[in-house]
């Protein structure tokens, strides 16, 4: 028999591999479905790729790859017989078969027992070889099987790679001297103390100076003031401000010239008022160690409808999602998205096509995992009602009170979460997250992975018209930007119970002074109309530069809808940052309406009698260290003359060499050479380098407030030059920069996801030479949900229509901040509200609409 098995496996030996370090072994979940070893058909693990497949999908993988040998894993779970000893050890047929296998159901090990079995299956004849079978199998096959059976979870490989472990502790960390100068760093609004840059900022851990970092090839970075500060003061350590999380931060040692670890980073940040790392956080489902002395018991009970007998529902669209530990922010967003027809059609309607054309590793393909998740939620396959016999058995055991909470099987989003959170410092962690931020993150992934196909996120996209007015000259400027959500302020001063709030605050202060227990908290009740009014009111523009006055001035901005989306997302701004950087939640309730009419907020554009601000750029502000040197003249830009001479020696015109070095940011002769090759055919190739002087009228968007994303932006020539030097066509480079608001990193992603098309480039040329002034002129005339054909070529795709909406879903948060607590969502389906609380799905008795955090509306038809 041994010889027979050996001969049988000989043709397949080259395809059988032993898992190496770094290989992921997916032995707990199918790549295309939520089948597991506990499913009726078990799970098949490919002995070459180590991917797992359910019974319905293993044939597809065999046909696509020709891989014939799979390990079939099956776990039999059954309840112990009545009268069995509660402390008995569950029986295992093969004790070492499923080491480190994550269980797909929540059960008490004392009430259940399981039997595991494994066997090799050879396709296409389905010949089975039971395991273990050490004596009869070739040694390589035995080693491979043993390695697969004992391999750790595939998701443990998602931890940081080994290079991060090589970062050493700084020798300055323990003995760092911090100046007691009273500096306190606010949670936002940072800028470099020397050049007012707002990106790539570093906090010096000795004196609290906030300064910019070095310039990078993609146009980001700064003017190197943090390094200059070290050279002047010898203060060695600095932390990057936008990397501070409860897990740590990015620290750099100027003296050691490398990234370092600071074991005392919490104390060092606390010195400047940043206590974010020291706070304790509430965990999921109410088990908390929060620093809030009075837990929000009523909020948790009301939002989860805890005191009511909720009826469980099952079937298509009523499938729960298991909580992986602080993953409810992901689950609630997915439940809402897959209640929208556009997402159902894109991913579930095209399921077979997506699966058939999936890459060899479907676990790393966004469309495949979205389709898998959508099918899991909408098929009803993982949300089946209990059998009648099970109901009777539960009643006999008097366990009917917990029946609804445990019989819904639900699906586990572990594979999906590992994919969409990869590389993200927050979502890849096990901490609680802001559901609004994750929604935008997921929409961005949908955008990036929908090139050349239907884009379901079109339903959320809309245009915002921002009107900025110079308070002195009274002139205006109109710009438009893309958005996916409106954020409504919460004006506490408009609360209907203001007197009650003032009385509570007085009692709280009195109790604090007298060291007594604080009074019962009072929740502010704010009308929704007040939030909407606050959204539409003018706001001051920080650091506004008026092109009419050629100087900084006071400016105000108002926002209106240039188009209305098919699905409107409304976020209530319930969270704020304390001076200690800890995000805090405002305790308030808002009477959010079921029906919403926003037509009065439709943008109107430039009005009669209004005068536009001149299209001029602000004067160039040179860094202080270069104002007094020989290159202070705007006619003499900083250019690496050595690189220029190296290029000139190759025979290129001197002026062309100067332009090449300048437009590639002095990155060296190699980058400049690539620029020359890409621009040799241009008529002004050898003409002298000309730069705008301080008063030259050039197109600019400098009057736009911070955060606006103009749609008619003109990409900087430096950025275009960098992309063209990489070999990308000029027209395609310009389009990519326009589509990404001149962000070089995102522009590169855009180029790779939008292959060059001659027809689209021709349209781009037309748009460059003949701007379409009427691109948004018809926004007021749309009466039905339409996709503007003009916008398909000259701007973002929007589904404009009437501004009348009906509420169909909302996500609620419980807890003191977005970094703690729990999320649930309510969705209106078939005329009734349903609560989705992790894997539990029930009919809602009293949907708490006034306590929601993010609301979802769908547009009403014009009839």
TrEMBL record:
Protein name as it appears in the record: Ubiquitin carboxyl-terminal hydrolase
Compositionally biased residues, Basic and acidic residues: 789-800
Keywords from the named record: Autophagy, Hydrolase, Metal-binding, Protease, Repeat, Thiol protease, Ubl conjugation pathway, Zinc, Zinc-finger
Active site per database record: 328, 822
Enzyme Commission number: 3.4.19.12
USP domain boundaries: 319-860
Ranges of compositional bias, category Polar residues: 772-788
Catalysed conversion reaction: Thiol-dependent hydrolysis of ester, thioester, amide, peptide and isopeptide bonds formed by the C-terminal Gly of ubiquitin (a 76-residue protein attached to proteins as an intracellular targeting signal)
GO terms for biological process, alphabetical: autophagy; protein deubiquitination; proteolysis
Family membership: Belongs to the peptidase C19 family.
Listed GO MF terms: cysteine-type deubiquitinase activity; zinc ion binding
Region named Disordered: 690-718, 759-800
Biased amino acid composition, Acidic residues: 759-771
Superkingdom of origin: Eukaryota
Signal peptide range in chain numbering: none
Domain UBP-type: 168-276
Family matches, as Gene3D superfamilies: Cysteine proteinases, DNA helicase RuvA subunit, C-terminal domain, Zinc/RING finger domain, C3HC4 (zinc finger)
Binding site residues for Zn(2+): 192, 195, 212, 225
Domain UBA: 638-679, 714-754
């Amino acid at each position: 028999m041994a010889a027979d098995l050996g001969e049988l496996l000989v043709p397949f030996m080259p395809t059988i591999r032993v898992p190496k370090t770094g290989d992921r072994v997916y032995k707990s979940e199918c790549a295309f479905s939520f089948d597991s070893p506990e499913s009726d058909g078990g799970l098949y693990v490919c002995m070459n790729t180590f991917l797992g497949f359910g019974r319905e999908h293993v044939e597809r993988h065999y046909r696509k790859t020709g891989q014939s040998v799979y390990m079939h894993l099956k776990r039999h779970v059954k309840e112990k017989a009545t009268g069995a000893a509660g402390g008995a050890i569950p029986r295992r047929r093969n004790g070492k078969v499923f080491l480190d296998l994550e269980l797909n159901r929540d059960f008490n090990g004392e009430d259940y027992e399981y039997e595991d079995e494994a066997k090799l299956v050879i396709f296409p004849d389905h010949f089975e070889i039971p395991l273990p079978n050490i004596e009869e199998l070739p040694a390589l096959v035995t080693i491979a099987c043993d390695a697969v059976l004992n391999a750790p979870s595939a998701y443990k490989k998602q931890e940081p790679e080994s290079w991060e472990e090589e970062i050493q502790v700084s020798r300055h960390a323990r003995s760092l001297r911090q100046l007691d100068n009273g500096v306190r760093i606010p949670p936002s609004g940072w800028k470099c103390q020397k050049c007012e840059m707002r990106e790539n900022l570093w906090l010096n851990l000795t004196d609290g100076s906030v300064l910019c970092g070095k310039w990078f090839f993609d146009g980001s970075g700064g003017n190197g003031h943090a390094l200059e500060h070290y050279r002047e003061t010898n203060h060695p350590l600095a932390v990057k401000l936008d990397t501070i999380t409860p897990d740590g931060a990015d620290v750099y040692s100027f003296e050691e010239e490398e990234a370092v670890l600071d074991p005392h980073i919490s104390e060092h940040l606390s010195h400047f008022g940043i206590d974010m790392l020291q706070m304790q956080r509430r965990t999921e489902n109410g088990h908390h160690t929060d620093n809030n002395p009075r837990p929000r018991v009523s909020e948790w009970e009301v939002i989860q409808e805890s005191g009511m007998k909720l009826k469980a529902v099952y079937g298509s669209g009523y499938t729960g999602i298991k909580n992986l530990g602080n993953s409810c922010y992901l689950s609630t967003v997915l439940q809402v998205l897959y209640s929208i027809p556009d997402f159902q059609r894109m991913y579930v309607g095209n399921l077979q096509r997506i699966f058939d054309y999936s890459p060899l590793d479907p676990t790393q393909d966004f469309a495949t995992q979205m389709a898998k998740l959508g099918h899991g939620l909408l098929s009803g396959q993982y949300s089946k009602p209990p059998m009648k016999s099970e109901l009777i058995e539960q009643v006999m055991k008097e366990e009917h009170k917990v029946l609804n909470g445990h019989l819904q099987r639900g699906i586990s989003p572990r594979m999906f979460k590992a994919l969409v959170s990869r590389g993200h410092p927050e979502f890849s962690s096990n901490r609680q997250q802001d559901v609004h931020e994750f929604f935008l993150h997921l929409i961005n992934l949908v955008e990036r992975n929908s090139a050349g196909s239907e884009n379901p996120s079109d339903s959320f996209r809309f245009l915002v018209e921002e009107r900025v007015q110079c308070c002195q000259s009274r002139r205006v400027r109109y710009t438009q930007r893309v958005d996916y959500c409106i954020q409504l302020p919460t004006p506490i001063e408009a609360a209907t119970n203001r007197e009650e709030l003032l009385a509570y605050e007085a009692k709280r202060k009195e109790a604090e002074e007298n060291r007594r227990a604080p009074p019962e908290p009072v929740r502010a009740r704010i009308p929704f109309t007040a939030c909407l009014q606050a959204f539409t009111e003018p706001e001051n523009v920080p650091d506004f530069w008026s092109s009419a006055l050629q100087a900084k001035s006071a400016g105000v901005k108002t926002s209106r809808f240039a188009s209305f989306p098919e699905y409107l997302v409304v976020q209530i701004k319930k969270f704020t940052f304390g001076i200690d950087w800890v995000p805090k939640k405002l305790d308030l309730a808002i009477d959010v309406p079921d029906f919403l009419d926003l037509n009065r907020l439709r943008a109107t554009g430039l009005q009669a009698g209004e005068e536009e601000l001149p299209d001029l750029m602000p004067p160039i502000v040179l860094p202080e260290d270069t104002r007094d040197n020989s290159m202070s003249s705007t006619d003499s830009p900083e250019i690496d003359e050595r690189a220029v001479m190296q290029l000139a020696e190759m025979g290129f015109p001197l002026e062309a060499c100067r332009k090449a070095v300048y437009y590639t940011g002095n990155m060296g002769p190699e980058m400049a050479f690539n620029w020359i090759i890409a621009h040799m055919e241009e008529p002004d190739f050898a003409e002298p380098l000309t730069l705008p002087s301080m008063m030259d009228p050039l197109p600019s968007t400098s009057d736009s407030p911070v955060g606006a994303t103009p749609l008619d932006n003109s990409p900087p020539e430096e950025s275009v030059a960098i992309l063209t030097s990489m070999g990308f066509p000029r027209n395609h480079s310009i389009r990519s920069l326009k589509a990404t608001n001149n962000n070089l990193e995102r522009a590169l992603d855009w180029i790779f996801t939008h292959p060059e098309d001659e027809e689209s480039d021709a349209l781009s040329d037309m748009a460059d030479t003949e701007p379409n002034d009427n691109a948004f002129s018809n926004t007021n005339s749309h009466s039905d949900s339409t996709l503007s054909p003009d916008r398909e070529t000259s701007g973002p795709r929007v589904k404009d229509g009437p501004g009348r909406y009906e509420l169909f879903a909302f996500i609620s948060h419980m807890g003191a901040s977005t970094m703690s607590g729990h999320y649930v969502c309510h969705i209106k389906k078939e005329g009734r509200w349903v609560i989705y609380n992790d894997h539990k799905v029930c009919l809602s008795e009293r949907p708490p609409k006034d306590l929601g955090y993010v609301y979802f509306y769908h547009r009403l038809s014009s009839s």
